[in-house]
Amino acid sequence: MTIQKKSGKIFDNHDLAILRVLLNDSRKSLQDIGHEVGLSTTSCWNRIKRMETAGAIQGYTVKVDLAQLGYQDTVIVQVNLESHTDETLYEFGRVLATIPEIVEAYLVSGDYDYYIRIAVQDTKDYERLLREKLYKIPGIRHSKSSFVLRTLKKSDTPLI
């Protein structure tokens, strides 16, 4: 399979295989990556650098188990705003970015304006977050919260 980005960049099966290896363990050596995908170390290095330059690889990170850090619960919050002016949307997004417990936020179409994923320690911690941070953001007309009972799938990409 070959994937062509809108920018015209083409990623072939070897590129996708390298990405899968890196997504599973970005600390693997070039030798290990090359062995897994059937390419030389130099070829892997050149492909990785090309994908970094093209923006397909945007960085390297660590996967963290939030429960191990004390964040036992995940809450999905749906939010409607009073206004949809550029200034209101910008300001709402700016404030959301300052709240560490907010791990994802999406401006969406449909019945709500935003879907926000929040990591909290427990229900008391969520109540504190609502009172001290979320409800202090000007312009929220309505919100609806749902606690995640179980995560069935979690992935940042359809490649793995």
From TrEMBL:
Keywords, in A-Z order: DNA-binding, Transcription, Transcription regulation
GO cellular component: cytosol
Transcription regulation is among the record's keywords: yes
One Pfam family here: HTH_AsnC-type
GO-annotated molecular function: sequence-specific DNA binding
Database matches in SMART domains: HTH_ASNC
Residues covered by the HTH asnC-type domain: 11-72
GO biological process: response to amino acid
Protein name in UniProt: AsnC family transcriptional regulator
